[in-house]
Amino acid sequence: MNKAILLGTTGVAVALAMLGFGFVTGSPQTAKADAVQIAQAAPADTKIDRAEVEGIIRDYLLKNPEVLLEAQEALEAKQKEAQRVASLAIIKDAKDQIFNSAFDGVVGNPNGKVTIVEFYDYNCGYCKRAMEDMKTLTTADPDLRFVLKEFPILGPDSQKASVVSMAFHLMMSEKYGEFHNALLGAQGRATEAAAIKVALSLGADEATLREKMKDPSIAEALSKTYDIANKLAITGTPSYVVGNEVVFGALGQEVLAEKIEAAKAAL
């Protein structure tokens, strides 16, 4: 193969590689356009041997494997930014449901200037450990409003415990913080029976509580929470919404404090 043909073939190989990486990095249209442009720049009499082109691409990737890592990093960064932008719109559109649902408990200052919303499950071990973060943050910051959003995703026991919790909140919202801390901080698995036991210990009437548990608006509220979580790409607990940002996972008090300060600065 003469030099001109080699250069043309190499150009086409690179173009094909770009097309492949374009799909990896989520830009197929741009990559395809670039690939076509490069391919068109090759000599008109260039004959492409598929095996040779594949060999060129293979050799290049074996000699430069970091390109694959760079492509993966670019993809992750692009997806993360796309999710951040999408989350801004979702949080704006569902602001009342996220921050002001009548079914959510509130601890700290109910009139605080900054709100952090925690999506949690009573049977989540990370949520149990993160409870201390909530206590520390609300104690240290008298202007912090901390919203507790039921997000039972760890099976039927979690769902039933949340129904009791939400019914209790509708009945005795002034004692919801105590209920939350007692159930989330208890040893063993949170169940309907365990949640009812905590509610009764705080003065709830069992017959009234069980009747309130049948309220269809509780199921409707949980359905809305699942929908919002899905749109925000929240799939685990704990997860948080602080200002206009979604924070995934139990990242600790210091990280949450930083996010809270950033939300304050944005006011």
UniProtKB/TrEMBL annotation:
It comes from Mesorhizobium temperatum. Signal peptide: none annotated. This is Disulfide bond formation protein DsbA. The lineage of its organism: Bacteria, Pseudomonadati, Pseudomonadota, Alphaproteobacteria, Hyphomicrobiales. CDD domains: DsbA_Com1_like. Residues 88-265 form the Thioredoxin domain. GO terms for molecular function: oxidoreductase activity.
